């Protein structure tokens, strides 16, 4: 699918990997809707790329439905969905005081990262399936954002790894399910990237993490994630695939 002229939705588009992807889509000529729970940051990014900011909670069906309608009203029906919104956490199963990890923390991560992504995708797909087909019968494409933690989860990452591993597991059946509608689905599993969250860590910690990456021995650049995400859109034969983007990194237990 050619990106130029298409309407695109980016969840978590106000910062980090989502912001970089929104900017790259806009640079390539897409009409971009920046979806985020932080509307202030979304407004800032949207104003800089000529897009529209939309407050959206991906776990809430009414919020997603309203966001899809708002984006379509401004840009027309979207054919591109970048699911990048997500959260992370680290909790040992048995805490230092001997108590069990809070179930609420586990449920929150899974609800946002997995259920929220599915919620956004199912509602997008239902609208996208109504559109006229393009070349090769394609109607749309969606991206999931997993993590290398889906494969190499570290100590305390049970919730995060489970949610990201579930996205990996959902990729192929989603692609198969939506094939009849001409909608593709792929996943990127990024490693260690220089996101705002990473930048909050002390510099020595960042340097240590970067040094653990075989090559190149540095943190990934958000724009590198964005470039791959946009390549998936333009390469029609990429479907049902999970791509690690990690510089050959394999995470240690801790």
Automatic annotation (TrEMBL):
Classify the source by domain of life. Bacteria
Alphabetic keyword roster: Oxidoreductase
| InterPro entries according to UniProt | NAD(P)-bd_dom_sf, Sc_DH/Rdtase_CS, SDR_fam
UniProt cross-references to SUPFAM superfamilies, sorted A to Z? NAD(P)-binding Rossmann-fold domains (SSF51735)
Annotated GO MF terms: oxidoreductase activity
Write out the similarity annotation. Answer: Belongs to the short-chain dehydrogenases/reductases (SDR) family.
Q: What is this protein called?
A: 3-hydroxy-2-methylbutyryl-CoA dehydrogenase
Organism the protein comes from: Ramlibacter tataouinensis
Q: What is the lineage of its organism?
A: Bacteria, Pseudomonadati, Pseudomonadota, Betaproteobacteria, Burkholderiales
């Amino acid at each position: 699918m050619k990106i130029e002229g298409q309407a695109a939705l980016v969840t978590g588009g106000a910062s980090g990997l989502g912001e970089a992807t929104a900017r790259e889509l806009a640079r390539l000529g897409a009409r971009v809707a920046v979806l985020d729970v932080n509307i202030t940051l979304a407004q800032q990014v949207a104003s800089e790329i000529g897009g529209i900011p939309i407050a959206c909670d991906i776990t809430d069906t009414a919020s997603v439905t309203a966001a899809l309608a708002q984006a379509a009203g401004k840009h027309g029906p979207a054919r591109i969905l970048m699911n990048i919104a997500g959260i992370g956490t680290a909790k040992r199963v048995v805490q230092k005081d001997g108590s069990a990890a809070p179930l609420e923390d586990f449920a929150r991560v899974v609800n946002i990262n997995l259920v929220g992504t599915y919620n956004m995708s199912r509602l997008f797909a239902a609208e996208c399936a109504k559109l006229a087909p393009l070349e090769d019968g394609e109607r749309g494409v969606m991206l999931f954002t997993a993590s290398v933690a889906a494969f190499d989860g570290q100590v305390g990452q049970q919730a995060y790894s489970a949610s990201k591993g579930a996205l990996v597991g959902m990729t192929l059946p989603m692609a198969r399910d939506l094939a009849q509608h001409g909608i593709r689905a792929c996943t990127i599993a990024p490693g260690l990237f220089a996101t705002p969250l990473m930048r909050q860590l002390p510099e020595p910690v960042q340097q240590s993490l970067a040094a653990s990456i075989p090559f190149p021995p540095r943190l990934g650049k958000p724009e590198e994630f964005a470039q791959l995400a946009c390549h998936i859109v333009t390469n029609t034969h990429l479907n049902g695939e999970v791509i690690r983007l990690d510089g050959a990194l394999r995470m240690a237990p801790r």
